[in-house]
Specification:
Layout lengths: L8 E6 L14 E6 L12 E3 L8 H5 L6 E3 L10 H6 L3 E3 L6 H16 L2 H10 L19 E5 L3 H10 L5 E5 L5 H7 L2 E2 L2 H7 L2 E4 L13 H5 L5 E5 L8 H9 L3 E6 L10 H4 L4 E3 L8 H19 L11
Helix pairs in contact: 3-5
The structure holds NADP nicotinamide-adenine-dinucleotide phosphate.
Length: about 325
């Protein structure tokens, strides 16, 4: 049996997670609820559970000298300075797996919305200007036989790829390492980034935000994509240059873009907001009741484990 936590361990938890947590998950913790618009400040907290929108860097860590764990409530952890944390021997954890299906489903919602021009159709009906069935009205693209390109084929990229098989799509992917099981199950082929750009009818991004991936979709790489291709991003906003995507949409080079994430949330480049054939969602990739509860539960389980002196369940580095 695991040993109980010493009473009243002071922890900081994002106030927005309160409604997702059960009392037993925060048992033994002296919780300070931290609203998103409040800075961290100095204190003796031993754990912090931040939202992905909160930057936890060297300055914040310096203000928390007793901190033992940053339990990020997201799978991406680009909001945490992991090097600064490691230097201070602070463990960093994330919430992998539980959000894979939700995010893959939402990616597919964007693919289908873009391919079949759903937003234009909804707007037409709502406006009262729809005059009835027309053989050439809102023609989209048929998926069967087209190529889906995945940039990043980890948990979410592969889940998106597996959903593509019944749609009859050919799958190609770029990742740092080959994925033999995924290739065997789906017929996917691993290709270089430049080939992924040149051959994808739908390019879907599923890599984390890192120095190597930031701005990977830019004015140069957009020009190397097929004319009329669809770009989907449910990974991180800074993988793409928003203005370059807006220009490619304005010029008709990009067929459509379906985006869930942005470089400077909640701000979106005005030219992108105004661009044609763009579908913009408010970062809801993992937003299902089940998933958000599981994410909060894993974050707190990591905190409880570390404060008991046990290894974390889902550290970002082992
Ligand atoms: P994951 O399992 O770690 O997969 C990441 C993939 O990216 C891996 O295939 C990895 O390659 C690849 N990759 C990393 N750096 C690369 C590079 N420089 N070039 C090519 N490929 C590279 O992560 P995941 O669970 O699928 O999540 C992916 C991302 O989705 C997260 O980092 C997060 O930012 C985002 N996300 C967004 C939402 C949302 O709400 N919209 C929800 C969940 C996640 P290897 O396998 O070869 O290492």
């Amino acid at each position: 049996m695991s040993s109980p936590i010493a009473l009243s361990q002071p922890v900081l938890i994002a106030a927005e997670l309160k409604g997702l947590l059960e009392p037993d998950q925060i048992q033994g913790l002296d919780v300070t609820w931290l609203p998103a618009d409040q800075s961290i400040g100095k204190g003796d907290w031993v754990a912090i559970v931040p939202l992905l929108s909160r930057w936890v860097g060297g300055t914040q860590l310096k203000h928390l000298p007793r901190l033992r764990i940053v339990a990020n409530c997201a799978v991406g952890y680009d909001n945490v300075d992991v090097v600064a944390a490691e230097m201070r021997k602070v463990i960093v954890t994330n919430t992998p797996d539980v959000l894979t299906d939700a995010t893959a489903d939402l990616t597919w919602a964007l693919i289908l919305t873009c391919a079949r021009r759903l937003v234009e159709g909804i707007d037409l009906v709502r406006s009262g200007r729809w005059t009835g069935w027309h053989p050439e009205q809102l023609l989209g693209i048929q998926l069967r036989g087209r190529t889906l390109g995945l940039f990043g084929a980890g948990r979410i990229g592969q889940a998106v790829g597996r959903r593509a098989v019944p749609f009859g799509l050919r799958i190609i992917y770029a990742a740092r390492t080959p994925k033999p099981d995924f290739e065997r199950d789906t017929g996917a082929a691993r290709v270089e980034w430049t080939r992924l750009l040149a051959e994808s009818d739908i390019l879907s991004l599923h890599a984390p935000s890192t120095p190597e991936t930031k701005g990977i979709v830019n004015s140069d790489t957009l020009r190397r994509m097929k004319r009329g291709a669809i770009l989907v991003n449910t990974a991180r906003g800074d993988l793409i240059r928003e203005e370059a995507v807006a220009i490619a949409l304005e010029e008709g080079r990009l067929g459509a873009a379906g985006l869930d994430v942005y470089a400077d949330e909640p701000t979106i480049h005005p030219r992108l907001r105004a661009a044609p054939r763009v579908v913009l969602l408010p970062h809801i990739g993992s937003a299902t009741h089940d998933t958000r509860r599981k994410m909060a539960a894993i974050a707190l389980a990591n905190v409880q484990a570390v404060l008991r002196g046990e290894p974390p369940l889902t550290p970002v580095f082992r």
